[in-house]
Design a protein that fits this description.
Elements (H helix, E strand, L loop, with lengths): L3 E2 L8 H10 L1 E3 L5 E3 L3 H13 E2 L6 H12 L7 H16 L4 E9 L8 E5 L2 E5 L6 H18 L11 E9 L2 H23 L21 E5 L11 E2 L18 H14 L3 H14 L5 H16 L6 H9 L5 H21 L6 H21 L7 H8 L5 H18 L1
Antiparallel strand pairs: 1-4, 2-3, 5-8, 5-9, 6-7, 7-8, 9-10
Helix pairs in contact: 1-2, 2-3, 3-4, 6-8, 8-9, 9-10, 9-11, 9-12, 10-11
């Protein structure tokens, strides 16, 4: 996929931003390139990243590096030559052979008596029964200590009762490896949470994230020999310690249910869309600020029920269709939309917002299970939404069937 400027939003004008970068660029007599402009230069780089259509597997640090290389040239910058250079750099990077990386992280699962190996989306997730192997320990500690000193972050290793996890992936670079690894881990976590999260909470900490299974605070990336593949580490800015969850102590069908969901997802003609929505779901319910969680979860539902653009009426109609008491659930969804809109525009924060999140999770669960169960039925998301647009009562459906049969006989 070629890297190009985003063209759907006509208000985005990359030439204006590139011209600004060119104005603050300086080239020394020996050909060294530097930039002045301070905060405006930082704004410009950030704006460029938003204006460019990158492949989704390309992580943020890789995108920033490509932009930096493209603008750090003695040549006069234009929007045409900047995007061309970024595309060339990306193609050069993609031509490199894949390398094996191992990302070390942790997860709020109870430790088992033996390690478990899970394969998902081309990644291998190894849930360890104890500490990380010795070959990784010194390098991981060095990365955390060095990065904390440079960035003044305050982070800690995972709680002792979390399970350590090693994710093995093949990628072009360390940053792309981390992006791929965390995507795989979060997809697996999304399915676990879909099957494990509580339906409601009547007492407890309103700032506690809803997800039962959450990541540890720190992720480091290593070569196969245990050494660091990157001196940086990745961390969870919204980390809140979770009580370790005993995933393997669920009902007898739990592991089979997980396998069935993955199998159905892979059968779907729009599986990548469903997986992206699952990622949005699990990352939304990691939020400790429940207003943020509700807004993000509504966005996940909206991307399935109204993919062409924000349309609250379609969200409500299509979600309500999945329930026998259509009119009642339509009203509950209207209430959630009203709260969501109030929260977005007024920054309103009420104590009951966590209950609203649980309610919205209920509708997400029903919607996602519909798409998973009907994986082999619909050729694309548009067809699935056409189904959800049908009348919600039998009488209206029969009347529509009669009209269609009449129309078929008329044109036949």
């Amino acid at each position: 996929m070629p890297i190009k400027w985003k063209t759907k939003n006509k208000n985005l004008k990359p030439n204006v931003v590139v011209d600004k970068i060119e104005k603050v660029k300086s080239v020394s007599s020996n050909g060294d390139v530097s930039f002045s402009g301070g905060i405006e230069f930082e704004f410009a780089q950030s704006a460029l990243e938003t204006m460019i259509e990158f492949p989704k597997e390309m992580g943020g640090s890789t995108r920033k590096d490509l932009i930096w290389q493209a603008i750090s040239t003695t040549e006069k910058l234009t929007s045409e030559n900047v995007i061309k250079k970024i595309d060339e750099l990306a193609k050069r990077q993609n031509a490199k052979p894949d390398v094996v990386f191992q990302i070390l992280s942790s997860i709020s699962l109870c430790k088992e008596q033996q390690s478990r190996l899970i394969e998902i989306e081309g990644c291998k997730l190894e849930l360890l029964d104890s500490c990380f192997p010795e070959k990784y320990v010194a390098a991981r500690e060095t990365a955390i200590k060095t990065s904390c000193q440079h960035s003044r972050l305050s982070v800690n290793e995972a709680p002792n009762d979390y399970s350590n996890v090693i994710i093995t992936v093949r990628a072009k670079s360390s940053s792309m490896a981390v992006t791929k690894a965390l995507r795989c881990l979060d997809l697996q976590r999304a399915i676990w949470c879909l099957l494990s999260n509580s339906l409601m909470q009547f007492a407890g900490n309103e700032w506690e994230p809803i997800n039962k299974i959450r990541l540890g605070q720190i992720h480091t990336v290593h070569n196969e020999d245990g050494g660091l593949a990157s001196e940086a580490f990745w961390y969870e800015p919204n980390f809140v310690k979770a009580k370790p969850f005993n995933l393997w102590n669920q009902n007898n069908h739990f592991e089979q249910n997980v396998k069935d969901i993955l199998s159905q997802l892979n059968k779907s003609k729009y599986s990548e869309k469903l997986k992206d929505v699952l990622l949005r779901y699990v990352r939304a319910l990691d939020e400790r600020d429940q207003n943020n969680a509700l807004i993000k979860l509504w966005g996940a539902i909206e991307s399935l029920t109204s993919p062409s653009g924000a349309n609250g009426d379609l969200v409500i109609k299509r979600c309500a269709f999945l329930h026998s008491e259509y009119n009642f659930h339509k009203q509950v969804l209207e209430h959630l939309r009203a709260y969501r809109n109030q929260s977005v525009h007024a920054g309103d924060q009420r104590e009951e917002v966590k209950n609203h999140c649980y309610q919205l999770q209920f509708y997400f669960d029903r919607l996602m299970r519909f798409h998973i169960n009907k994986a082999a039925v619909f050729s694309d998301l548009e067809k699935a939404n056409e189904f959800l647009d049908l009348p919600p009562d039998k009488e209206s459906l029969l009347r529509q069937k009669e009209l269609i049969e009449s129309a078929l006989s008329f044109v036949g």
